From TrEMBL, chain A:
The keyword DNA-binding does not apply. Pfam families: BPD_transp_1 (PF00528). This is ABC transporter permease subunit. Belongs to the binding-protein-dependent transport system permease family. It comes from Nonomuraea corallina. Its main location: membrane. Keywords: Cell membrane, Membrane, Transmembrane, Transmembrane helix, Transport. The chain crosses the membrane at residues 71-97, 109-131, 137-160, 181-213, 233-251. It is found in: Cell membrane. The keyword Flavoprotein does not apply. PROSITE patterns: ABC_TM1 (PS50928).
TrEMBL record, chain B:
It comes from Nonomuraea corallina. Coiled coil: none annotated. Residues 9-240 form the ABC transporter domain. PANTHER family: ALIPHATIC SULFONATES IMPORT ATP-BINDING PROTEIN SSUB (PTHR42788:SF13), TAURINE IMPORT ATP-BINDING PROTEIN-RELATED (PTHR42788). This is ABC transporter ATP-binding protein. Keywords: ATP-binding, Nucleotide-binding, Transport. The lineage of its organism: Bacteria, Bacillati, Actinomycetota, Actinomycetes, Streptosporangiales. GO terms for molecular function: ATP binding. Signal peptide: none annotated.
Length: 264, 266
């Protein structure tokens, strides 16, 4: 038995055709059933639309100034919120890891904040900043910040003692020690934080657009729904999904290239 | 043979006391000894006796509570760029290549790129890692990683090399090979070394002099001069003088271990 175990471990499953074929079949089957259900009248067209209609709607949608505008609005909000949140998160993470007193005070709040749906604070922010992009960016930054800060602290807390002694014995300045040794060494833990933060940022961006925006993909989905344009709504949902998948792919690529050399 | 040379590292009545919640702990009391220039000195003693404390004082990572520690006649007040340390963990930067790891100490010291690259390449050769310059630490075995750490330490051309059980994390076979390898490297460059270990044969094989530490609070119980001529080959353990010295040091350490047992029975 141990022999078979060893054989399995040493030889990773070969990339055959079965897995992708099954996956493709599942997708095709799903859309075929959906289409058939809609065609037979089993699925209410006002709730479910139908794939063939959504595809034509999508074709109309793509490239229109409105869609380009929505896409740009969503992406800039997301990017601004995520970048601000990630930078602040890394900063707080460093401060918490470095200063024991700060750690004692702040870390409890961070953990608690993790379970608070920060989205609910939007009315407060609206009254402070008004009905513009500001509140959305702030909420997105806040939801990004929390996991990034927690993971940065964890990553810096797990720096091997040898690396700490190395930095001291080489007389690295504090900033050089962080730039050249501690932060790169913490990347394997910081990156999952960025990942979680990004997903939260994406969900929050779309969610906030439902509520307060006048442009953006989330806004467009909501607006189509309110005007009974079900087919348009589905087409916009497809755009959101594709965007999410694409950005996730890019993140995975970046993570892999960063991590390749970091893990020993 | 050892007395005429000038001292690089001197401890004079060096003592260190820790203050903890439950009182003070005397880690080191009145250590007086010196590492002569160009000599390999090992510190051996019961585990937890303060060997590493002595090394940390030499490296400027800890300050003695009384007495003094001097490097080339100058009081040690903190870490210096001319003191190189090798730890039990290789402490390499896994995202850097072997070459860039070796050059890291030089980079920290602000040596220009071209020069540190050349220096790193010559050290790669010295420690026998030719062809591995562009590999990452993750691609190397434990013994090879420790060679990189040694090369990084030697790259800065240190006044003294401080090694804290550098082979402690390796398996016995690799450990013996690394000992032989380090002897060979050292016999080529002859820098001053203070080497902490708890392995008697390793200490004898490498050293010109072995300091046997006592139980805590630690002092130097005895300094044993290792008068086995160099170069020392791989068959050193068969040398009768080696076995004799092995016995001497073992007895010294055994007495300490007995004292510890009696002490803890009180």
């Amino acid at each position: 038995m141990s022999a078979t175990l060893r054989a399995r471990r040493s030889r990773p499953p070969r990339a055959g055709w079965q897995v992708p074929a099954t996956q493709a079949a599942l997708v095709v089957g799903f859309f075929a059933l959906w289409e058939a259900g809609a065609a037979s009248g089993l699925l209410d067209p006002l709730t479910w639309s139908r794939p063939s209609v959504i595809v034509t709607e999508l074709a109309d949608l793509i490239g229109t100034p409105e869609t380009v505008n929505d896409l740009a609005a969503t992406l800039t909000t997301l990017a601004a919120g995520f970048l601000i949140g990630a930078s602040v998160g890394v900063g707080i993470g460093i401060a918490v890891a470095r200063l024991r007193r700060v750690q004692a005070v702040v870390s409890t709040y961070l953990v608690a904040l993790q379970s608070v749906p920060l989205l609910v604070f939007y009315p407060v922010l609206l009254t402070i900043f008004g009905l513009n992009r500001g509140p959305t960016v702030i909420v997105v930054a806040a939801v990004t910040m929390v996991p990034v800060a927690l993971n940065t602290t964890a990553g810096l807390g797990a720096i091997p003692r040898g690396l700490q002694r190395l930095a001291t014995s080489l007389m690295l300045s504090r900033s050089a020690a962080y730039r050249k040794v501690f932060l790169p060494a913490a990347i394997p833990l910081i990156f999952p934080g960025l990942r979680v933060g990004f997903l939260a940022a994406l969900v929050t961006t779309i969610g906030m657009e439902f509520i307060v925006a006048s442009a953006g993909l989330g806004y467009r989905v909501g607006q189509s729904y309110h005007t009974f344009a079900v087919d348009r709504m589905y087409a916009n949902i497809v755009v959101v999904c594709v965007l999410a998948i694409l950005v996730n792919l890019v993140l995975t690529r970046i993570e892999r290239s960063l991590r390749r050399d970091v893990t020993t | 043979m050892t007395t005429s040379t000038e001292a690089v590292l001197e401890f004079e009545d060096t003592a260190l006391t820790y203050r903890t919640a439950s009182g003070t702990i005397e880690a080191l009391v009145g250590v007086t000894a010196a590492v002569p220039k160009g000599r390999f000195v090992s510190v051996i003693g019961p585990s937890g006796c303060g060997k590493s404390t002595l090394l940390d004082i030499a490296g400027g990572l800890l300050a003695p509570t009384s007495g003094s520690a001097r490097l080339n006649g100058e009081e040690i007040r903190g870490p210096r760029r001319t003191t190189a340390m090798v730890f039990q963990e290789a402490a390499l930067l896994p995202w850097r290549t072997v070459r860039d790891n070796i050059a890291f100490g030089l980079e920290a010291a602000g040596v220009p790129k071209k020069r540190r690259r050349d220096r790193a390449d010559s050290l790669i050769n010295l420690v026998g890692l030719d062809g591995f310059g562009d590999k990452h630490p993750g691609d190397l075995s434990g013994g090879m990683r420790q060679r990189v750490a040694i090369a990084r330490a030697l790259a800065v051309d240190p006044e003294i090399l401080l090694m804290d059980e550098p082979f402690g994390a390796l398996d016995q076979q690799t450990r013996m090979m690394m000992g032989t390898e380090l002897t060979k490297i050292w016999e080529r460059i002859r820098c001053s070394v203070l080497f902490v270990t708890h392995d008697i044969p390793e200490a004898i094989a490498l050293s010109d002099e072995v300091w046997v530490m006592s139980q805590r609070p630690a002092r130097i119980k005895e300094r044993v001069v290792i008068d086995i001529p160099r170069p020392r080959g791989a068959d050193l353990p068969l040398d009768p003088r080696f076995q004799e010295l092995n016995g001497v040091i073992w007895k010294l350490l055994r007495d300490e271990a007995n004292r510890q047992l009696v002490g803890s029975a009180d």
